Amino acid sequence: MDKIIPWFVKNPVAANLLMIGIIMAGVLGYVNVEREVFPAFAANQAEVNVGWLGAAPQEVEEQVVVRIEEALRDLDDVDRIDSLAAEGFGQIRVRAKAQVDIADFVNEVKLRVDSVNSLPRGIEPPVVRQTIYRDEMMRLAVHGDVGEKRLTQLAEKLRDEVARLPN
């Protein structure tokens, strides 16, 4: 290290060439960096969504969510199960352990959910898929003393105007 600095002092052309090389490498690296407006990433979890129009959250929990959770309890490679019961809707998120093939895991969850035959008749078929998160760039709420149709038109117009903005 003691000999490198004096050598560059005595050879300024070499120092300048090294600097130009580093700058060019930085520019090439920047140009080749992958960029996304709405980056998405897949989580290591499966998501089960069930719709049941008109059902209270307690009914959804007792007759849908609990039964699906019971079918998934002894599934291998499960790290965690989180559930949500809302009015007319139930969601179960099944997180897999770190080193699991997620496609096989989602298929196994689907098989287990499809094997539950004690679900109520009025529900929509459960939808099982891998969870994919998308980062939001912006969220806007449109509010006013006009009808829903007019608010929808204004929201769509606003969305189009924001999409046309630079950057």
Structure description:
By secondary structure, the chain is of the alpha+beta class. Helices cover 44% and strands 22% of the residues. The protein contains five helices and four strands; from the N terminus they run ααβαββαβα. The chain has helices at residues 4-10, 12-31, 57-72, 102-114, 148-164, and strands spanning 40-51, 78-86, 89-96, 127-134. A four-stranded antiparallel sheet has the order 2-3-1-4. The longest helix has 20 residues, at 12-31. The protein starts with a helix and ends with a helix.
Annotate the secondary structure layout:
Layout: H1 4-10, H2 12-31, E1 40-51, H3 57-72, E2 78-86, E3 89-96, H4 102-114, E4 127-134, H5 148-164
Antiparallel strand pairs: 1-3, 1-4, 2-3
Q: Report the average pLDDT across residues.
A: 88
Please report which band the strand proportion falls in: under 5%, 5-15%, 15-25%, 25-35%, 35-45% or over 45%. Answer: 15-25%
Into which percent range does the helicity of residues fall? 40-55%
- Terminal-residue CA separation: 45 Å
Whole-number radius of gyration?
27 Å
H/E topology pattern = HHEHEEHEH
Residue windows where pLDDT falls under 50 for at least 5 positions = none
Question: What is the strand arrangement across the widest sheet?
Answer: 2-3-1-4
Shape: flat
In DSSP terms (H or I, runs of 4 or more residues), the helix count works out at 5
Main β-sheet: number of strands, strand sense, barrel status?
Answer: 4 strands, antiparallel
What is the number of beta strands? Answer: 4
The computed structural class is: alpha+beta
